[in-house]
Design brief:
alpha+beta
Length: about 230
Amino acid sequence: MPPEIDPIIQPPRRPGLVARLRGNFLAGIIIIAPIALTFWLIYAVVGMIDSWVWPFVPDRYLPNALLNRWFGDPADPITIDVRGLGVIIFLVFTVLIGWLGKGYIGRSLLRLAERLVDRMPVIRSVYNGAKQIAETVFSQRDTSFDQACLVEYPRKGIWAIAFISTSAKGEVRAKLPGDDILTVFLPTTPNPTSGFLLFLKREDVMILDMGVEEAAKLVISAGLVYPPERPPEA
């Protein structure tokens, strides 16, 4: 006789067709969404740069005008979307401006223009802020965070991920008690571009072994993406 089946303990049921289709659909979304978002973002950024560049190009030198001049038929003009050519023009123009700005004449003209801007109250604030951001983001000097760390915030017993910028300097270092004060940036989740600037004693900071990029992924993902565990050092 077959063994009796406990009515309380039932064998697991095989997922139905709808459940399997839903699982496959979600798996496909997980695969497709990052790829589609990446391509869409590139396409959108390229189109945005093109829309900035084309108004400065004379009409007779636009791609459609050149194609119609060389290969087109007046009765049937050629119309195509040459997306990305504006990006190339922008890159060449930016490199040329950078090359001119490094020279003596370029630096002299830039200093003259900045002196004129400093006399304009509102424009001066906008320009100086934008310049500081650009120098921080695009400078080739070492301005990145040194290490990831844990700090107790917003109270004792609650730990948050932060990034060590540098050691405190100037008046801040002189006014604060202690021998070793660190400048720490505490980002918010999931937008790490905003946060809090903290000045902490080194003994109040717990240095992490994970890199800055790994810690940033952990912050952006709201704790869902953890870095792989490193093997213990011998």
